[in-house]
Automatic annotation (TrEMBL):
This is Molybdopterin converting factor small subunit. InterPro entries: Beta-grasp_dom_sf, Mopterin_synth/thiamin_S_b, ThiS/MoaD-like. It comes from the Bacteria. Gene3D superfamilies: 3.10.20.30. Transmembrane segments: none annotated. It comes from Catenuloplanes nepalensis.
């Protein structure tokens, strides 16, 4: 499955890129995050713990729910400001 991951703010800094496309067998967001943590090392682990996620534009709170086919996943860390 082709998964597009878009990183914002602190997630972009930790990943060293704003976007990447992976061929992945990750069936859930939890599996995808584990794969990305392995790929990028510990830099993203603390960001993932605090981040919110959008999958194809919809809020995704259940990390164990099945991902749709060829999704776009947005990684949104907490934003400062008002």
């Amino acid at each position: 499955m082709k998964i597009t991951i878009r990183y914002f703010a602190a997630a972009r800094a930790a990943a060293g890129t704003s976007e990447e496309v992976l061929d992945s067998a990750a069936a859930t967001l939890e599996a995808l995050l584990a794969e990305l943590a392995t790929r990028h090392g510990d830099r993203l682990t603390s960001v993932f713990a605090r981040a919110s996620y959008l999958v194809d534009g919809a809020a995704w709170r259940d990390r164990t729910a099945a991902l749709p086919s060829d999704p776009t996943v947005d990684v949104l860390p907490p934003f400062a400001g008002g």
